[in-house]
Amino acid sequence: MLIWSKSGRFLVWAFVVPLFAIVYGLPIAVIALASISGQWNDILPSKLTLVHYANAFRSDSFDSLKASIITGALASVAALVSGTWAALALRKMKPLRRRVLDLIFFVPSAVPSVSIGLGLLVAFSQPPLLLNGTRMIVLIAHFVLISAFTYGNVSAGLARLPVECEQIAESLGARPFYRLRRVTLPLLMPYLVAAFSLSFALSMGELGATVMIYPPGWVTLPVNIFALSDRGAIFDAATLTMILGAATLIVLWGLSRLSNRSVLR
């Protein structure tokens, strides 16, 4: 949109499309080919097979997929509730206090995920809160890592809401909870769905903290992918990578449809 001439646009597209294909398309294509490869000794695989996908749904890898989806869903719901609550509360505060608390909420996003995992491991490895070796510590780690993004999305949505809608509802005698339930939250729905989608996508791909704290029997898919690639099982790791991407895209597509329906209403 910033380039007005047709020749300039053509040159930009001629540069951007090949660059996009090389940077994004080529790695995905290689992973997709590796997931259906039985043997790969040349530029292209010499033997194609779907046995890796069949094994993925018959082994512990399917349990890893369920663990990732459950962890992502629960952590995203918790982050959405807390982030929305915090954004609504901070909106009424004075600018200085709001800026300070804003900074505090965004601290987890500035800290490496490995540090978060190490901190939780040290904090919850002794009584009275002994969570090391439980699934709860994984949920807490994911919640801490994604809560800042949820809060940021909801805060941005609140800043774009027309203040007149709430003021009109208040002038008509609507109580605070009624205004929240019938005015503010419906107007925020597209931003809430976007915040949940981003949180879920981040949780599904989280590795740094999870690999340090996951308990036996609750291995998420990224951890399983890392373990397989570390053992040299590249084809199996590529298969799980494709399954992880497909599962995430399906959930995000469903949330996008839900967001579009809320906007149309």
TrEMBL record:
<keyword id="KW-1003">Cell membrane</keyword>
<feature type="transmembrane region" description="Helical">
    <location>
        <begin position="100"/>
        <end position="124"/>
    </location>
</feature>
<dbReference type="Pfam" id="PF00528">
    <property type="entry name" value="BPD_transp_1"/>
</dbReference>
<feature type="transmembrane region" description="Helical">
    <location>
        <begin position="188"/>
        <end position="214"/>
    </location>
</feature>
<keyword id="KW-1133">Transmembrane helix</keyword>
<dbReference type="InterPro" id="IPR000515">
    <property type="entry name" value="MetI-like"/>
</dbReference>
<keyword id="KW-0997">Cell inner membrane</keyword>
<feature type="transmembrane region" description="Helical">
    <location>
        <begin position="234"/>
        <end position="255"/>
    </location>
</feature>
<dbReference type="InterPro" id="IPR035906">
    <property type="entry name" value="MetI-like_sf"/>
</dbReference>
<dbReference type="GO" id="GO:0005886">
    <property type="term" value="C:plasma membrane"/>
</dbReference>
<feature type="transmembrane region" description="Helical">
    <location>
        <begin position="67"/>
        <end position="88"/>
    </location>
</feature>
<protein>
    <submittedName>
        <fullName>ABC transporter permease subunit</fullName>
    </submittedName>
</protein>
<feature type="domain" description="ABC transmembrane type-1">
    <location>
        <begin position="65"/>
        <end position="253"/>
    </location>
</feature>
<keyword id="KW-0813">Transport</keyword>
<keyword id="KW-0812">Transmembrane</keyword>
<comment type="similarity">
    <text>Belongs to the binding-protein-dependent transport system permease family.</text>
</comment>
<dbReference type="GO" id="GO:0055085">
    <property type="term" value="P:transmembrane transport"/>
</dbReference>
<feature type="transmembrane region" description="Helical">
    <location>
        <begin position="136"/>
        <end position="154"/>
    </location>
</feature>
<keyword id="KW-0472">Membrane</keyword>
<feature type="transmembrane region" description="Helical">
    <location>
        <begin position="12"/>
        <end position="36"/>
    </location>
</feature>
